[in-house]
C-alpha cells in the first residue's frame, strides 16, 4: 500500500523495532526506532495511546473527538497528518483500508 494511501479503515501499527517509551531522565515520551528517536507532544501522545494495531483511523478520531469535545473533522485532519508523517518517517505502518 502506498505510504500516503490512508482511509478511515486504515489501521496504524508500530512496525518491528519501534516502540513508545517514557524517557524518565528528560521527562518526555518518545518513539524509539533503530538509531533514532522522536519526542512526542501531548497531541502525539494522545494519538499514540490509541494506536494498538486494532483501532482504525476512524475509531481513533471518534475516541479523541469525544475525549476533547471537538469536531471530528478537526481531529481527523490532525490524526491523518500525524499518522502520515510518522508513516513517511518509518515510525508507523498501516494495514487495511
What can you see in these coordinates?
It is a single chain. The protein has 97 residues and is of the alpha+beta class. The chain has 3 helices and 5 strands; from the N terminus they run ββββαααβ. Strands 2-3-4 form a 3-stranded antiparallel beta sheet. Strands 1-5 form a two-stranded antiparallel ribbon. α2 (57-68) packs across α3 (72-88). It is globular, with a radius of gyration of 13 Å. The model has no long low-confidence stretch (mean pLDDT 93).
In short:
With 97 residues, the protein is of the alpha+beta class.
Largest β-sheet summary: 3 strands, antiparallel
Give the C-alpha Rg. Answer: 13 Å
Approximate strand percentage: 15-25%
Order of helices and strands: EEEEHHHE
Structural class: alpha+beta
Distance between the termini: 9 Å
Percent range for helical residues? 25-40%
Query: What strand line-up does the widest sheet have?
Result: 2-3-4
Unreliable spans are none
Q: Mean of the pLDDT scores?
A: 93
Shape category: globular
Number of helices: 3
Strands, count: 5
Amino acid at each position: 500500500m502506498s505510504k500516503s494511501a490512508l482511509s478511515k479503515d486504515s489501521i496504524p501499527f508500530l512496525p518491528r523495532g519501534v516502540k513508545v517509551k517514557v524517557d524518565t531522565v528528560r521527562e518526555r515520551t518518545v518513539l524509539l526506532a533503530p538509531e533514532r528517536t522522536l519526542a512526542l507532544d501531548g497531541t502525539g501522545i494522545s494519538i499514540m495511546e490509541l494506536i494498538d494495531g486494532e483501532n482504525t483511523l476512524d475509531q481513533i478520531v471518534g475516541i479523541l473527538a469525544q475525549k476533547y469535545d471537538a469536531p471530528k473533522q478537526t481531529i481527523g485532519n490532525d490524526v491523518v497528518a500525524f499518522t502520515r508523517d510518522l508513516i513517511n518517517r518509518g515510525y508507523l505502518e498501516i494495514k487495511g483500508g
